[in-house]
Design brief:
Elements: H1 4-37, E1 41-50, E2 60-67, E3 70-75, E4 84-87, E5 90-91, E6 96-97, H2 100-105, E7 112-118, E8 121-127, H3 129-139
Antiparallel strand pairs: 1-2, 1-8, 2-3, 3-4, 5-7, 6-7, 7-8
Length: about 150
């Protein structure tokens, strides 16, 4: 059935697959850090309540450019098409972990989910663990100046 060489070949193949997976993950995380330094990040986003133009209730990958009180979302491979600018009213405190099936659907680098409230509903935005607080601080609207 199996001799020593077959087992050795199988072990080599499994080792190469594991090392390749780790290297690809490391490259993707570095790319996310570079984008974060440039003021953008890759996110997975979906509509939870309400209606948002070009966004569905299923997870979609988008390139996000967060600003105070505003979230610019564009397709991460297509320039200019399906560009969505959303006003952010608030970001709920706390973040939840992705469920196992959600992680399989979105991506392995997305681990934390932030809930963002907009004038037309609510969104869930999934980002990496390291980027969750960065995104929250960038999205939180600036306090309104008091007129009194």
């Amino acid at each position: 059935m199996f001799d020593g060489w077959d087992v050795l070949r199988l072990l080599v193949i499994l080792t190469l697959v594991c090392v390749g997976t780790l290297l690809v993950r490391r490259v993707r995380i570095r790319r996310l850090r570079r984008r974060q330094a440039a003021g953008t990040t890759l996110v997975a986003v979906r509509t939870v309540q309400g209606e948002h133009r070009w966004l569905s209730t299923r997870w979609q990958r988008r390139l996000a450019a967060p600003q105070a009180g505003r979230l610019d979302l564009s397709r991460w491979l297509v320039d200019g098409r399906d560009h969505v600018v959303l006003e952010v009213l608030a970001v709920r405190p706390g973040a939840r972990d992705l469920k196992t099936w959600e992680q399989m659907v979105t991506d392995d680098v997305f681990a934390r989910v932030l809930t963002v409230q907009t004038p037309t509903g609510e969104l869930e935005v999934a980002v990496g663990c390291e980027q969750a607080e960065w995104l929250r601080s960038r999205l939180t609207p600036a306090p309104a100046a008091d007129g009194s």
